[in-house]
């Protein structure tokens, strides 16, 4: 159905629910593609294959990239208010268009993290931490490959080995930024910018988790100052109900 | 009326409401001026026009700057407690006085962001994120132009192309600060300082959004620990009301 | 009285209230001393007076420093549990002992900020922001003077002018840290460390303010999800009271 | 018992409670070992003993390291769902395996901090701050020793004295990262990465503490907007109870 949708870009409003169904449907397949893409790209960057192998890998990488274009178009088509959706998903557009520039295809992995993030709808703090850690590791690894791929050939580049790339990624995502290593190419700097945004979100998630933990601890400390909970209201409700029965009893006694 | 106000700097107390009316009135026109100013300044910095064009652009830039001076004076005049208002709006003064130093005029764009920030009085998290992103992009672009304008002619400057300026702005607003590029002039450093403050606020907004999201999620998880909501109180109120009717019924039955 | 206290370091428990009375008493005088000290130190560092003037200024600086030693000893003496107090105020000890190393005397200004912080016991967000900004400006200025004073004479130092010192302080307090300028002496690095701690607290305060603002906005948005407030409970209480009157009315009607 | 457990890696489910009992039992002994290890390692790094002393110290360090291996194996064995526990404690594995690489043994001290963190289950903000400060100081000291130990012999290293190492640690944990000093060896960079993570958590804890303080202050300010507390509910409950008595009284009067 979505294929038809995609071909006939008619302006007829499509119920939101269909977009959601599509997203639920496409989520994990896309995540799988992103993961496979990361694996292949690792081979490409670290193994630096030559001749035929190189072409095979490029072909596979392109094949793994197509689904994301399909997904983007499908979601844009299914969106109820296309204009609104378009502006709310500019990042998705960037990620779909930029990949043609090669290593940035890796940024598709942000989709994987995104999927995981969505998967923790009913998250407890523990999970937030877990997913934050996972996203950080993934981002560092993906960014290291991407930056190495674009910097290695550049003249005057100082990120020339995978070890250096990882070290640079860590200093960047933590916003420490020693400056002993830094990208010198435009693509490398775009990767860096996305990594920094990831870093800031990561720091935010960690801080937020600690904050919610402290807020709870502090309020739990002094029970008089503790916020009234549903449990309290319910106990009160029970008391009122008991009172109602008492009054009802009166009516009975008199009616006799 | 505000013009009269502005001319006669009399000490008579002006009701707060009039200041607010003025601000509501001036908000969007000023934002428009700031946007137009940014566009023109972009032409000046990136196009580096010569001869007549240069003078025309300077003239237009100055014309677009005047409204902000007018606005500042008007607000100061309309303020109920001028002294208090003056100290609470020192940044506005800086922004109105500094522009005479040229590129810093760009900082007026903070006004645009400010207007947007005020526009989200009833913001949901999504909007906070949207405006944060918008402010960040705007700040990076404006600061890049400003720093390029002041650094390019300076001797020993290392920010000499627009690409470099943008890269420097990104590393600065994220507080990564590699140090591969940095301003060497006083004006450039003032731009940098304002950019850093913007960056810190940006990080704060992101963290805060995640925090409020987590706090809500955590409390929603364990309904017994969930904070009592207005909804709960209302259901309880309904029960009490039902009880009141029951008692009222008794009075009727007896009165018969 | 406190003088006597200070001389006779007897182990008799002193009621907490007396410590608090002393602190309330000493707060503003100490703040005044710190301010005067900052002014004088500015003259010393920026004016670089020679000969007699130099000695006069040193004398005055020392005189302004004594009160802080007195204050520290007094508070330690008046503290109910001296050991506990001692470990909880290690920073105060550092600030009282280190000043003998000269420029670090400036760090006493942290006391001024501390006083202000305490003064906002009933703070609204606006005040938090105001005091954060004030503390930041004060810290940057004080640290700039201190670092300039200790770095200028050092060989291989790169912070040699007041402008550079301020620029370095700003990049440090915002944790950007380009690394174009950095202290090379031990004293300069201690100043830097204290400035970084100040910066982290500043960032924390800004983030926290935004967070509490968002949390309130979000909960205010959906009144059904809004946390139950005292106002709600009171309205409910009124209803229950009305019900009580109704029941009381029954008793009257029957007793007739 | 745990020894037996460790030897017979049988798949029989062990009640969670036994794991907890073990952790409670092992907590402080392990902390003591970590502290002793830090002291000895300080001697090794700062004293640089030669000949026999060197071998003695190495022996002692190894002896102090064994308990952590035992602890890890024991906990893995006692864990109810081993797989889940394994993935949730990957960091512990790293810390137990990496130490064989020498200086990283120091990272075991994270265990000490961890123990303290757990010890503040019923923490008030003050304690959070105290433990944050303690953790920071400990991390800086431990990381300084570790990085000095691995960098000193490296060619092209710029962290060659303890003073430099401490200064580097401070600029790193605060995420300032001037870049005047930075590790060049793989081990040094691993230490740095762990230090950065510590720094981010530290910043998070500080921000969170301030946030919870502000949230409380703000809500306390306007009692109408103040969140309903258990105290309020209880007062309401009392009123309802009083009403119930009133109704009960009616029943009595009639039954007469």
Automatic annotation (TrEMBL), chains A, B, C, D:
It is a multi-pass membrane protein. Pfam families: Ion_trans_2. This is Ion transporter. GO terms for cellular component: voltage-gated potassium channel complex. The lineage of its organism: Bacteria, Bacillati, Actinomycetota, Actinomycetes, Mycobacteriales. One of its GO terms (biological process) is action potential. It comes from the Bacteria. Residues 139-215 form the Potassium channel domain.
